[in-house]
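Colleagues,

Please find the record for the two-part complex below.
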Amino acid sequence: MSASARHAAWGFTLPALLLIAVFFLLPVIAALAISFTDFDLYALADPANLRVVGLHNYSTLLTTPMFWKALGNTAIFVVLGVPLSLAASLGAALLVESRLARFRGFFRTALFAPVVTTLVAVALIWRYLLHTRYGLLNYALSHLGLPTIDWLGDPHWSMPAIVLLAVWKNFGYNMIILIAALQSIPEDLHEAARLDGAGTWARLRHITLPLLSPTLVLVGILTVSGYFQLFAEPYVMTQGGPLQSTVSVLYFMFEQGFKWWNLGFASAVAFMLFALILGLTTLQMRLARRASLA
Amino acid sequence: MAGLKQRAWAAAPLWAALLLCGCGHSGPKVEVLHFWAMGIEAEVVAQLIPAFEREHPLIQVEIQQLAWTAAHEKLLTAIAGDATPDLCQLGNSWIPELVALRALVPLQARVGESRQIVPDDYFPGVWQTNLIGAALYGIPWYVDTRLLFYRSDLLKAAGYDAPAVTWSGWLEQLQAIKRMVGPQRYAILLPLNEFEPLQILALNQPEAMLRDGDRYGNFRSASFRNALAFYRNLFAESLAPTMTNTQISNVWNELGRGYFSFYVSGPWNIAEFKKRLPPEQQGSWMTALMPGVEGPGVTNAGGSSLVLFARSRHQASAWQLIEYLSRPAVQQRFHELTGDLPPRRSSWEGGEIGRDPYSRAFRMQLENLRTFPKVPEWEQIMQGMRVMAERVVQGQQDIDSAVTGFDAEVDGMLAKRRWMLDRHRGNP
């Protein structure tokens, strides 16, 4: 590459790099630095009140029961929510793209609609759906002869209720990605398989799923890292209750950082969560690569 | 913040136009006051401003409305970014925090010179919430205290003419109501996501919730244990449902239906119950003083104050606005618009508020308020207390381990405060 071409390349990328440096890199470095201090309300008033505490925030964090509880809650949410969400997205994508489906455009829009509606408005309606005495869900349960559930009041059911809401709210996004991937699978593969006598199930298992797998891995990674950052749903539905059963790691961080202004401690939570998500998604990637090689 | 900035840019042509117009005139400059207010008060106070601006033609007031849920973050961000307004409506439990941030101006000199603001006219409990040490940092705007809302017809049906003034009498009444309404309904609603009911019970006990100059938690004291035991018992006997407020879609309807007969709430609900209960039920509810351990009780001295910011360059004009909003006549009008309770006795004389039967209990209770400890960490401590009490109510922890564990937690929250106090003592 000639020198002038190189200069031109820098010229084109520099604005973007500058933006990334100023609005992403710098804050991240600052947050990392803050996580080694006890930056709080008093330090905001007077920098003389700031103490460098080294890894103290991290060690305190590891001995804070609420952090472990929040981590446990988040893990439950991810373990329940991610498979459910992927299954819902895949199922919906297959149904909408099925050759038997009518009004595809309508269904695509309808199923995608929850993604673009405001969570606050949706939460209001879900609170009514989940209402213990007047809710539609309990109405259905009691009609089936099942005992009703105190969805948002029973600490065992509050997280499943949040999972239901989150899956319903988010599956449309992945569905759109999967639909695009489905459309890129050549129709002649299906035709050839059909001529060879492969049924619907066999074609799904041996043609659709293998060809979808790169997209599924991508969608899986996005969903895992997204679901680990659970915040808005419990914030508007339960405020972390009952009995802290819906406090997620991010919610815990928000409370520490922006409610109580313990910014040093909250930054430590943020980096802990970052490390966790990074570790898990890397693992996911490795597994996926090994699976595709095998 | 992004939204704010965008709006500022969007208004740029407007500003330019204003500047151009301004060039044409000469003469005295108009001072613009930035006034931040929250919730319904922000909507309503705008109606009181034109009269003020007529009296002070050289002052123009710009009201910025904040949502209560976001107000705390907004204020702290504004302080961190040196973007504070001239004056602000401030929840009085936030005053210690903003004083610790050195964001507010002491006001006692101005009060000393003022003919409008007479400290003795204010209810002492609420005035005190504005004192940090000996310095005054806010002028009470309205009082937000909680007492009992109850169904007088159900209480009568259970065999009582008036609500009890002692805890034991109150408990008896709640038990009688519960016997009457059966297992599907309750005697009282104490939402598990609110710390105020337990805080009020604890304020009625002799020992304070913090000790040693507010350096350590004192939740293991006999006093707090008594309050917590009383609270837990209300749930254990099924007098109160183990529910949060978010689970009850409509508290007004539920009180009307008799799902519960007592509710600990604030003055804003007077207007709501008047509006939301059908006319034929309007004679069936009333307000009453908080019962105490052995006689009429105290309650919390909540509410909002008006404060001046240290960075304001219009403090004298902003103070004039505070004086105007503190006039009894203006406060009466403000009450009519919002239902908020005026903090000074003369504002209660005459006008609609003097005649309202539902406000009578509040008027009496205002003479009997107790201030909570004035430390910046107080709200965090109260939220922690709520979580701890919820565990106790749900039977996950016994009182003894809960209060000792919580004391340790509170000591941790106050660690920095202790370090600061010790340091200031070391080098004054």
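The first strand of chain B starts at residue 31 and ends at 38.

Comments are welcome before we finalize the supplementary table.
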